[in-house]
């Protein structure tokens, strides 16, 4: 099959999932064409079957907002015709499902029928998409997609609650190549990040308010008072400066390292003893799954799809949003005993296997077959 994948190329779960899916599909013999405005961060163009087409939006002074959707749908039309694409798979409803639908309609005028699969990722529904400014267009493009998938049952329920959806939504969970998440380092390299007696705690996100990074720091501060620890914060985002200031005001700035964005989170996670994800909203929590695949237990909030990923009392613990006291207590209970920590680490790795690429990618292939039969 020749599949065109539209996604956001930047750091963020939806782009990572779309990129990993594209790579996995080529390993199953498909040809994949990524269509976006920048080469996706985790994409290395090492296979004959992977192509990348850049969407350029020329700057025109008349426009206060440059029309990206228009450029994207025109690019889709051209790529579909040039490469005889069989199917469009758009990740993140805004504006990709809308642009994809326009491309589909333009192609129809030229006698080309092509199915479109839309994958909902979370903030396109729970944060941005349900805003009245966007809601009619998002509802329309979800309902006009040939097949719609969501990355968790929770996101499916949210979509049906927040929008007037007439299409069936199929849950296809996010996934991870478990085999890739083996520790490439030795204990001596761990020593570069922390003293031997210290535990290493990690948080990875886009440091936006929805991630509640100040809660991460508050939980860490409570842990560190009982168990000497280091906090590694990976990612860039609007809350970074305020969080650095919060660390200074608590006098823990020497214990917290802000590492910026990383393409190789497994090289950081392999040293970690615990992962914190106290988000306000989280449709799935891909970062938590990546941590678990590296054998890192997760302390998270119980919002959205997190309970579908992090198993309470097994791969970590879940608490109500903002309950930093309980999250810190759970963390301390795991970290205070080497035996208990080893057990949670093993459990986390085991639970992550339910989301292995091998199990999930065939589900997307079944979705594609279904979409192809609909047009
Ligand atoms: O978490 C973010 O803010 C980024 C966002 C994205 O679009 O990349 O993540 C969403 O999609 C991920 C991949 O499906 C999910 O793992 C995240 O839980 C989801 N984020 C939210 O729902 C807040």
UniProtKB/TrEMBL annotation:
One of its GO terms (biological process) is bacillithiol biosynthetic process. Residues 11-179 form the Glycosyltransferase subfamily 4-like N-terminal domain. It comes from the Bacteria. It comes from Pukyongia salina. Gene3D superfamilies: Glycogen Phosphorylase B. GO terms for molecular function: glycosyltransferase activity. This is N-acetyl-alpha-D-glucosaminyl L-malate synthase BshA. Residues 196-350 form the Glycosyl transferase family domain. SUPFAM superfamilies: UDP-Glycosyltransferase/glycogen phosphorylase.
